[in-house]
């Protein structure tokens, strides 16, 4: 499980006074950096070899500017050339947003999916989370 | 069915050379303006009374800067205080992205959902789409 | 002079209830598309050969969601490998924002500036604006 | 002087493979949070009482995804109801971007500027920077 602490930015709010729902995808992208590093250790954008096939969001409670946000990210499942992630957003002792996504290991020159190499699969497997999800509030800091 | 034509902005691309997947939610928000107007005819942000409960995206093909994008939006279903939308993105003769969302008629002061009034429901019902979805390419301009 | 009409997007507002000041740069980038086309007629992002060296913004009045915005863009000056633009934002009969920018004709492989070719210079020169700037409200639709 | 360390987000890049120039304003807004706290200690967006009147940017070198960015922020000058800030962006041992902005202490209900109270002025004055600006690379970590 990966943990990211994010300080909401004022520009990420909208006229409803809360974080705009388009912001969460940007936060989750930031939260996937540890996973990107497994595929591209130097994070060189030119070597980027992942693409998103699907994602979904459930907005459970509003998130506000001015208080830090905790994002938990887990690997749910690993396929031949794809893997499934789940994200959860917590603020001020509340679970606020959950999200799932499917990422594909992808060759951008050939425009086709590529089998995940064994050494990367092993790293991803270390992060498969088999406990109850989303993480309970009392377990947030563990 | 609502049709929006959007010119992708250069800042909406990312280092992979295509439209970043976080851009689609912003386009769909723009595409919902006709639906917002049913609820708030003058579009005064202070009267905004909708909130998103859920959304999902399927990324089928890349979208690029420099060519216009057609977005089709339909009402799928209307509940007591919520309704379901679907969006589809087309560029250059391809279906590129599909999305579904659940919107809730919401009182932001009381922080609770509100039944959709009859005159608004009637307007929404006019936009329920019962044909095959997503719209086929040959029917895009109809 | 180039004219763009933009519909503000809800996600472009912030918690102050107005358009966030980081939005204007994105609108001006969209407004420069006619200028980009002079340099890259097919707008292929891979051929992009402009870079911004400088920009400034003066925020004169708030802009709101729900009413269209008119953006006027002019060429102010053309140098050997650079040129100066000015933008102005109008909403609801008010001048709201002005901006200036310096763009450089740039070779991204060699990472150096490139002299503006004669046929492009001629096109740019057609758009040099020598009247009073920013355009007066009564002249907005001319 | 305030120091912020920011991890560039993939969605902040553009098709040129570098950080899009519209991203810097968002980073500087994040970097102003320490200054916002002087005015609104609990950072409640509803109490927000600052507005930007002017800003400018000089883009000196590209910034890339995958390496952290250091942002230095100083108070340059304090007026009756406004104050001037300067920001500088460093990555990988290079000064990449500089920026100046003018912020106004503002009453959003009455839509007018408000004199900066004495206790806030004293806090701002502690951050006036009178050394050579932008900070030299060898002094970045001091």
How would you sum up this structure, described in words?
Four copies of one chain form a homotetramer. Chain A is an alpha+beta fold. The first copy, chain A, has a single domain (2-139), classed as Hotdog Thioesterase (Thiol Ester Dehydrase, Chain A), CATH 3.10.129. Helix content of chain A is 17%, strand content 36%. Chain A contains three helices and six strands, in the order E-H-H-E-E-E-E-E-H. Chain A has helices at residues 23-31, 33-39, 118-125, and strands at 2-6, 50-59, 69-78, 82-91, 94-107, 112-113. In chain A, strands 1, 2, 3, 4, 5 and 6 form a six-stranded antiparallel sheet that branches. Chain A starts with a strand and ends in a 17-residue tail after the last helix. The mean pLDDT of chain A is 96. Chain A binds chain C through residues 10-11, 13-15, 17-18, 20, 22, 65, and chain C through 10-11, 13-15, 17-18, 20, 22, 65. Strand 2 of chain C pairs antiparallel with strand 2 (50-59) of chain D.
